[in-house]
Each structure stands twice: as C-alpha cells, then as structure tokens.
Amino acid sequence: MPLSFSHVGICVSDLDRSLRFYCEGLGFAHVFSHHVGREFAGLMELEGVELESRMIARDGVTLELLAFAHPDPCGS
Predict the structure, then answer these.
(1) Distances (CA, A) of 49 to 22, 26, 63
(2) How high is the pLDDT of residue 54?
C-alpha cells in the first residue's frame, strides 16, 4: 500500500505573521481553526499543552500551523 498522509504540521512562533505569509504570499486558504488544550496532554505526551492550530490548504496540500503557548517552544 502506498504511503499517504492527511497534512503536514509546522510549528510557528508567530501565528498571524505565518498565516499572512502562507495565505497572502503563497496562496493558501484558511480551512479551519481549533484550540488544543490540556485535555490533549496525554495524547500529545506534553503535560499542560496549550496551542492554537490553523489548517490551510492549496492545490491538494494541507498544512497545519501550530502555535504553542505551553510548553514554551524550544530548538533552533
């Protein structure tokens, strides 16, 4: 069976700026938004997780922009 996926998740530090870039600059369209709260901590294996998610799509490609409020972002 061929590999398939529903979307690609991208962690962003500034959700509004990222939405402008992808939607106004690259032509993606907002599909839906949702808030992920602490009730998902066990599923995500992140104690006290809080984030905002925006699904955007263009030409059959769907991206999920993830802006974490908790835990603090890390990495380079």
Answers:
(1) 25, 30, 20
(2) 97
